[in-house]
Amino acid sequence: MIYRNAILSDIEVIHPLVYKYAQEGLMLARSRNQLYETLRDMIVAEENGEILGVGGLHIVWDEIAEVRTLAVAKQATRRHIGSEIVSRLIADGKKLGVKKFFTLTYQPEFFSSLGFKEVTKDELPQKVWKECIDCPKFPNCDEIAMILSD
Question: Per-residue pLDDT tens for 90-114?
Fold first, then answer.
């Protein structure tokens, strides 16, 4: 398995992967435009030329970043690809000085297994919510907020 930074040509594989999970209500949808705009935030897991997973780390504010857009191809689940992606994103964030990582998720069990703790959304800084205004679920967010701190 190769873990690498995402490149432009990966978006046409990442988009249907994310879209499929969004259709099942397992994650929020991301438009192609959103994926292109956040391309530099993402890493992919690739095996034999096939992208099997993706995840992003979005710097939000001083010392805080969001783990987002985490998806693993159905045929590759249970191979620890998702946990490896998150581990690499956190390591990259720490190199930049990030001290607090958060996620908004429908998969709290997965993130809990990686050390994230469930928190109320009120515990996250206001800066976190700047993109929520464009979400179709705004203002009735039903995702679960979770934090991983040093």
Answer: 999 999 999 999 999 999 999 999 9
